[in-house]
Amino acid sequence: MSAAAATGAPRTTVHLVRHGEVHNPDGVLYGRLPGFRLSERGRAMAQRLAEHFAGRDVAAVTASPLQRAQETATPIADALALSLGTDARVVEAGNRFEGRVVGQGWGAVRDPRTWLLVWNPLRPSWGESYREQVRRMTAAVRDARDAAPGRESVLVSHQLPIWVTRCTAERRRLAHDPRRRECTLASVTSLHFEGQRLRGVSYAEPCRDLLPPVPQVPGA
Asked: Which residues form a coiled coil (predicted)?
């Protein structure tokens, strides 16, 4: 008999879902900018996620207020006959390179005019700190867990906030190489609880076969 069964602690799962591919032909680091919608491939990813969660005991589907997250979450909520909630705490990380064309390799940071922004990549100095992202994300996870004990909840968010939340859960360092994040488009990072205790993290890529051949802008 597990400790959870012995104590009666409910087993609860909070799924952190990254949004699908965005229509971004210019390679802009869009961050929190409005107006960036899902691409055709991204819409197919959202539908695949809906199929992935269909029939599961999901109590709530909640998304970042950004358009790409809302468009990813809507088919999931519809498949489960749930109203879609919005939580600003799971929004994309703040980034001062927002709106720039950066491409792979972070070409913008080679411009001397930006060097004051990149002096400390461990924080990172160009945007919202990793610790602040963890603070707001874990608060949202905690509320989702406590609102539906013994069930599942879905939070549709963004790559970097999801990744640093996972790093914290797995007691990894927050500073990292963005190219090594295990958080592909439309991926599912699941936090498993027994009562209020985190007992494990799992990761799935329901849309692996739909991933684009060319890597996305880091953090997008």
From this structure: none
The residue from 15, 21, 71, 92 that is catalytic is 92
pLDDT tens digits, residue range 52-104? 999 999 999 999 999 999 999 999 999 999 999 999 999 999 877 777 776 54
Q: Collect all residues with Cβ–Cβ distance below 8 Å to 117 and sequence separation of at least 6.
A: 96, 97, 109, 125, 126
Phi, psi of 135, deg, nearest 5: -60, -50
Q: Tell me which fold the domain 11-210 belongs to.
A: Rossmann fold (3.40.50)
Cα dihedral 161/174/218/95 (nearest 10)? 60
Domain ranges of the chain: 11-210
Task: Please identify which of the residues 19, 21, 128, 158 carries the catalytic annotation.
Answer: 19
Is residue 52 part of the annotated active site? The answer reads: no
